[in-house]
């Protein structure tokens, strides 16, 4: 059990030593943020060069490639926990520190000597944690409300000493200090304190305020300005009637040492609730004669006593003479003060405190010099009167006003108090051990539906003095009882004054997800003393309507602390460092005077400084300005900012000459300005307000700056808006946009990011504060965000990088029935099929079409396009659909194009040319009109899940859940002949539901699903021979553990296949057929986690080899698309498998903080196994080689003849005469002997015989 942590000045006014050890920090003087690094993920090395255009399709609003190990696609956290984040090189927000609650403020602390210690972060958290990877166990570091993070070393320094929440920090190099404000206690201060470099926590001269500090800024004159909900300087004070709370001894475990054996006097419990002063059996406890001893009480809760009352015994002359009080478990002997009954003077004692033996002295009171926490104590009796010591009664008192959920810890009934502290618990509460907390507490396990009557605790304190109180709820941490996963929110209500007009009602909602103990202020204001007609009470219940199947509710205690105050302030205070504070003349400060001009119960929420001007925003009115005003600290003049706004300002950020404000308003106070709905911009030079679009439809809680690359490579300043809204209001030509309380305004575009037709990153969640480095390399952010490198909906191009398509698929609206521009939850065979389910690139007959099918709505030329979209690249990417021919509730699940005819199958209903269509619709892409439609497919679910065209035929095969095509019996698989325009049976011995089809070759079709052969044999994978018209079970298909959902070819010849489906135990399997005949199946094992849904499989070639593994070639990888949950990582929408290891490939996000998914990857060319898709058989390779050889030989012969002819011509050869005329005229008759003689003469040199 942890001892009570809260402390205030001791009961007698002496100064106490600090709780916290003062910390001295040191760090290397480097940039405070640029040292943060992220781990690059291994390159995928996908070889896409033979595929043409490639697209990734699914149901998402943002998509990223997995490039850094710190990336994930987990939704942003909504239980109140937040992180300190930096940006990865690809723009994704990555956590560098996580907390168990909210980070509300940050600043970079640079000491006066120039040494950068790091980043101060403040909020309402109780622990910090550095990110973990894989299976690493989280290491939580207890750090309440404030800490220092060193980005250079990724180390956390806990700045121990504060209890509560920090709302504002100001790092001031000039004073080597961090000024801290909020709702906390620390040292001897409340709500304001300073942390000084090299020294630690230091009380400010004024010791804090009587209410929370919301914002701190530094004026140009060096003064520190505080804004908040306070009316004066102040701190905790003791009640007028001291020691008024009775500590319950009756619920403690009482023990003793050396007790007498006399009957009726040996029980140490005799003196509990014994206040009559009369000795006797059952009323007195005695020690053994002539022996010292002790009396001890052990409690199940911690407390801080201020007074001990002892009743001495006089039984048979016995009595206690000297004693000491030891606090446990610290084993400290306590210093006491008392009034000597003889001299009637104050005296002190420690180890031998005297107790009077005078029978007229009924009891003696001893006050504790030091007020400390304990949960056990012992009274050691060292000397005695008569024959032995003993006591007749004991009481313990304190000044902490608590009401405990466990009623046994409240004031005892025997104290006879008129309005004792108490509690009433109803519901399934159980007592939980204290573990590391200050007290045992109640725990309730509640199942949905969660209502405010599921369980409750009513706390009733013992308030004896009316006044201003801080009311705080104590909540035990969830790590100690292992309930973090099921903790939720609680709702606290109550009334503090008899007259409701004199106080605001308690109405507070808090998270209980804190890792370690915490306390939250739930009320500050007037509290009436308890009376017969009124009693202050607080009721704790679960927050109704929480979206949790089971919730763990805890209740421990509520504390009421009386606050003393100087008064004279109203939400603003100016402090000059190094000078004393004159509490008698607050009006000397123009800042204080400005606050005094505000109406009562005002609150300052935000401060910003520009030059000599301090801007003040909050919930206040004054004669000159409402809710926002500016003060010139140089000449003490006020500027009304065009009269201010007509509602509360909750947050502000200043960028140059533009002040961005968020809150609850819709115009200025003096004149109407359209579009100022809860967020606005003020031009400090022109003194004019302008809207951000038309604002948002709910309250804005935070406006925070960040940077984005909008139109170039240079980051520019943009404004994030967070709050309780779900729509960016329509303005100009921009329609309303559904959001989840988050929007980003781009000043350079004068529009919201969601409206810009640009390829930008996607960001959603909560952004609470930031430290901006405009270079884009060193910014730090706090909040809970999800982000993607590309914000596109449902379809993205993939090549060297991700890219968008010139298609506008609309985001879901709040109600699917209220607008046609929404994703709808129609009745489909798989209700999770949303977005783009399938797609193809069509290039037949010189077309350039991108065709998408699924369950979506897109924007066309003047009308909405539902579920099937055609984009024509030859007509400037003109987008069209099928009009109203198919129902908006349809889902297109499969597409194919054959002979200019588009076949679209799925869960489709509609009317074409006056005829009903179901499951399949056809459309002529050449003339852009509907064909005569095939008869509808009916029976089963009436859906088509797969379409496969048989090569070199006009047969289009469809598979799905149906039993008839028109009047033709055709269960599971049927084919439509485009030449005869009619359905035909694909065999007669198949039944069941077909999920996927694949042609192995022109004479072998594979079908996966939940099938039967010949109405008897069940199988999950079947083969069909179109020549024999017979279906058979795939060889060894009995090894498959469940129906096949998807399949793909594993090799270029389609003989080896990959299949995936759902096993009978609900797990997802992935298997490969190793042999051509399917006789050998290999499973990757149960490596995919529950929640996995595989929608697509595809082999990709790689540009670089991976390690060799038996299942996949080292130059290939298998891509899985869908929602794949990997061990030690979580979900990914695209995953690559190398035969042994799964690696995330693509991550998606979706609207509404829900996970995205990928349905398919499709490409322009189907060359997934290399160019041309497959290799020629060897015989054709030989014949082609022979043909090439013969051709080369012929070319050589012809070339030789040509060259010979050229040579002869050059040497003077002429063709011999060939005509009879030439012969007759050109040759004279020569006698034969002359001819022969001439021949012999021509051979000179030849041998003769």
TrEMBL record:
The chain crosses the membrane at residues 1178-1203. Keywords: Membrane, Signal, Transmembrane, Transmembrane helix. One of its GO terms (cellular component) is plasma membrane of growing cell tip. Residues 242-391 form the Rax2-like second domain. This is Cortical protein marker for cell polarity-domain-containing protein. PANTHER family: BUD SITE SELECTION PROTEIN RAX2 (PTHR31778). Residues 811-831 are annotated as: Disordered. Residues 1-35 form the signal peptide. It comes from Neurospora tetraspora. InterPro entries: Gal_Oxase/kelch_b-propeller, Kelch-typ_b-propeller, Rax2-like_C, Rax2-like_second, Rax2-like_third. Residues 402-563 form the Rax2-like third domain. Residues 920-1169 form the Rax2-like C-terminal domain.
